[in-house]
Each structure stands twice: as C-alpha cells, then as structure tokens.
Amino acid sequence: MSYHVIDLEQQTQPNIICPSCQHCVLDWAKTQYIQPCEHTAFIALDLGFEYVADDFEQTLAVSVDEIHHQELNVWQHIQGSSLASLTIYMMSLGVADYKRYVGFTL
Ligand SMILES: [Zn+2]
After folding, report:
1. Number of domains the chain is built from
2. What mean pLDDT is reported for the chain?
3. Of 26, 36, 46, 88, whose Cβ has the fewest other Cβ atoms within 10 Å?
C-alpha cells in the first residue's frame, strides 16, 4: 500500500475534515463525534478500530474482529492493507504514545 500520513503532531482532539467531500468526520462538538463519510476507510486507535468501512476491511490480511480478539498491532495491520492509496491523519491521544488514525480513500 502507498499512503500519505499527515501528522497532526501533539493535537489531541482536532476536528478532521474529509479531503474529498469536506464532511467533518471527527467532530468534537458532537456527542457522537465519529461521523464517517463514504471516503472514510477507518478510524482507529492503537488499541482497536472505532470505525472500519467494509471495503477497507477486505484489504486487510486479518479481520478487524481477529485484530481485536488477539490484541494485534492496529497500526501495523493498517500499513499492511492491500489498498492502492490512502491518506491517513494521525493525532495524539494525549495518553502515553497512543495515537488515533483516520484513513481516507481518495
Ligand atoms: Zn468524504
């Protein structure tokens, strides 16, 4: 997979806008802050997926259930996706070195 990472450095709760449709995919003003659009491939933490599109899950070597069940490394499996290209926003969770990842297919 070829992917482009946009590192939001130390930001912990940035709103994330889809680069294709400008929909606010992570909207911290909302209680239900995860609002995936059709371009959202996944929203994940190091500890597990918060959202995964069916199309994206099919490009992973291991299913999301299996990744959660076996507590496998989420970021490593995202990088192993067979998808052609992806833009990934990366931000800090503000806890240890944990990060949140938001992936978009373009
Ligand atoms: Zn979109």
Report:
1. 1
2. 94
3. 46
Cα-to-centroid distance, 53 and ligand 1 (Å): 12
Question: What domain range is 45 assigned to?
Answer: 2-104
- The CA 22 to ligand 1 mean position distance, Å, reads 6
- Residue 106 CA to residue 85 CA, distance in Å, equals 8
The whole-number average pLDDT for the span 35-63 is 96
SS3 of residue 48 by DSSP:
strand
3-state secondary structure 11-46: CCCCCEECCCCCCEEECCCCCCCECCCCCEEEEEEC
pTM more than 0.85: yes
- Torsion, CA 31, CA 11, CA 103, CA 6, rounded to 10: 160
Q: Determine the distance separating the centroid of ligand 1 and the alpha carbon of 85, expressed in angstroms.
A: 15
If you measure from the C-alpha of residue 24 to the centroid of ligand 1, how many angstroms do you get, rounded to a whole number? 8
Distance 57 CA to ligand 1 centre (A): 18
